[in-house]
Amino acid sequence: MISKKTFIFIAFTAAIFMAFGFQNSSEHKVLFEKAKFTMETKGDLKGAIKLFSEIIKKYPDEREYAAKSQLYIGLCYEKLGLKEAKYAQKAFQKVLDNYPERQEEVALAKEKLASMVKVLKKVPHKPTFRKIRIPTKLTWDVHLSPDGQKVILASDKKLWIMPISGKLGPDFPGAPVKLNTDDVEVNRYGLAWSGDGKWIAFSDANLDEEQEGNMAVYIVSAQGGKPKKVHEIYPDVRVVNHRMSLSPYGKTLAFSSVEGNEQHIYTISVDGGLPKQLVDALAREPVFSPDGKLIAYVKDKNLGRGGGGLWIIPTHGGTPKLAAKAGMASSPIWSPGGDMIAFLDYKDYGYEAGQIQIVPIEEDGEAAGEMIAIDPPEGIRRVRLLAGWTPDNKIGAIFKSHLEFGLYTLPAKGGKAALVSHGGYPGQPRWSPDGKRIFHTNVADDGSGDWQELAIAFVSAKGGKVTTVPIQSDAKIYKPTSGGGNNVSPDGKMIIFSGWKQGGSGMHIWTLPVDGGKPKQLTKAPAPITDQFPCWSPDGKAIAFVRARKSKNYFLGYGETNIYIVQVNGGEPKPLTSESDMVSFGSIAWSPDGKLLAYFSRDEETSWDGTLNVIPVDGGEPRVLGKVQKIHGNKELAWSPDSKRIAFNGPEYYDKVIKVISLKDGSIVDIETDLVDTNIYHLDWSPDGNRLAFGGSQGGVPEFWLMEDFLPKEKTKKKSK
């Protein structure tokens, strides 16, 4: 069905063509009317600018229509708002310069230029960005003190205060000082200063398992001391859900918490009592205004995975007011005077980059003018957090540096690594049995785009183009970034992988022809069971995998986890391990001689560290080979072809070390990669034993920056008085 606007345009265009008899001499008039229709009726201002520009270029001798087109270009830019004001000014000036004889258009252009003097005063200077060269590893949650002189951050479950400037100059911080929290361990996320800088809020790093993963929130003096427990909250998994705020004098805490699969914002006295829900709508990231009368927050969607605009509500409740429309607002901060709010918006500008928006605010919380939009500096992958607004109008921010991925091979004894693919997000590399190809997960087709739509792919072991393995299925099957398996069968004909169907309830094990085709589902465990980390038996007749029961609460990880074996031709999977084996939800590997399965086992005392174990496939007691630090989904196991050694990547989530442990005596050797600033994740050992394959990443780390000179001169002068 033709829309009303389209019908009007067709009829109008037909009338124009009839009026001018389809003569070539009238084409510029038809194009002009099309451009006006695009501007005024369709509202496509950028499309209209292209059409008006086409008239000026194609028909320079048609002075009347060229002048009108130049004027309309200015009108389009004017409608696009403050950030395009300088382009509108240039367009109007061109009418005066290029078409002085066109009195009507010149008069209108002069009128517009006169009115734009006030508009252009609002246009900000081009902001400057300055990186503070903090030598220690940062987390994604660093906050400026209200006086702008220092930051708080959490590291190694301790709270630290660091001066922004040290003796080496303004770009180099002072020495960090550990704040006494009386042995209460500090979570990496969820830090906040009170407005007077005397109090700090934080959450406990130790989860309360009896409360299903609730986190205790504390306040402590900025000088250190015994923290006071305020309340227990459940922020779920997303980092943005942890963000909270203290009132100007530290008397009230604002936070968000999840209950019944919904997230809402609350306030509570730090002296105790019951929390008060502020709005009925789903919301997160509440922030007190400097005078404590208002709270800004952002609309929530899907427990922090999405959202909407920026809203403001009186601290004691009332009717919320929309301060700014946004695709996905996040990280609001108030200016010291309380007359502006800066926040991030992701959806319309690309989730990875984001854009910094600044909106003027009236005393009652109403938006007071047009927003200022600021892009991050080049080379920054994403703005993760606005860390605070200083009294001298600097905004602190945590930026994520540009992240690049590649697939590498390395001599098994160490040495010079070779890059076999670059770009995309290659993971879980697996050699083909003949050693000629490396199968892995990567972004579909061209190796760039959304991580979450990963495909099984392969690349030549010598390097080259990444090729996607096509899956023929009516349902979309999603592959995880870790735990997918992707192992090629010993005869080189089939691939085994873990994935979940769109609309499904968990991960299952699938087989797929190595050249693509229709996948076959092998396991069908009901939710909340998930099956991952599959691997082939050396004879190709069976598949081992990890089956785990998902905990209700993300922070508690997985419940009972065991290794199961299922026959390729079907049947009921049979457990190999029991609950007492403490199998970790992570990589497993079948020894090439077919006798053992290697797996990670977590210690009872800690949720991260553990051991590397092997267990006989035919039954028997497992044997501990050695201690392992920080077990996680990116840490993978790979046997040497002679079944005498096992390789795994180092202790950090992204690390620079490959370790090889001896089955005979448990001794461990570190394999040097000779790579600079490249972190290793996932790995596999080549069939001939000569090389290792692994994924590598560069960048993507948190950096602390200050943004300066972002306000119009007029606004800056008012603030400085």
Describe the structure.
The protein has 721 residues and is mainly beta. The protein folds into 3 domains: 4-121, Tetratricopeptide repeat domain (Serine Threonine Protein Phosphatase 5, Tetratricopeptide repeat, Alpha Horseshoe); 128-401 and 703-720, Neuraminidase (6 Propeller); 403-699, TolB, C-terminal domain (Neuraminidase), CATH 2.120.10.30. A hairpin with a 2-residue loop joins strand 11 and strand 12 (262-269). Helix 1 packs antiparallel against helix 2. Mean pLDDT is 86; it is low at 1-24, 446-452 and 717-721.
Task: Write out key terms for the chains shown.
721 residues; mainly beta; Serine Threonine Protein Phosphatase 5, Tetratricopeptide repeat; Neuraminidase; 3 domains; five-stranded antiparallel sheet; four-stranded antiparallel sheet; 7 helices; 49 strands; globular; disordered N terminus; disordered C terminus
